[in-house]
Design a protein that fits this description.
single chain, mainly alpha, elongated
């Protein structure tokens, strides 16, 4: 779902604006989210575990994306440890949106997973009772 939304966003930007700069690293980030979910939630998907994976992925996104921005000098911070720390500090207000989105989507997808699992179990129970 996230990859399809990202692709749709890229296509819409390309078709409707003069500005479109592909950012392939974003595909790597979303692939990381999928892999983390498969790795950590495949066998046991508790609320705490899902929240931890969602929070951890958001934190990893914050750390890696800001590090890459600092490396590319997207925003001109010094090429020093102080410059890197300044770039991380400046990005904290933007992380709030990422964190809220991660929490919201994690809760929505976890709730959908639980509801579908219960519906499937109820259907299987009705079928064996019949």
């Amino acid at each position: 779902v996230a990859a399809a939304a990202l692709a749709l966003k890229d296509v819409c930007l390309y078709l409707t604006t003069d500005w479109w700069e592909p950012y392939p690293l974003s595909w790597v980030y979303f692939t990381g989210y999928v892999l983390a979910g498969r790795l950590f939630l495949r066998r046991s998907a508790s609320v705490g575990r899902a929240a931890g994976v969602g929070f951890g992925c958001g934190l990893a996104f914050y750390a890696v994306s800001n590090f890459v921005s600092w490396l590319e000098l997207a925003i001109p911070y010094d090429r020093s440890l102080a410059g890197l720390l300044n770039s991380y500090a400046a990005a904290i207000p933007f992380y709030r949106g990422t964190l809220l989105g991660d929490v919201g989507f994690t809760a929505a997808f976890f709730a959908a997973h639980l509801a579908l699992g219960r519906a499937r179990a109820a259907a299987a129970e009705r079928q064996t009772a019949a």
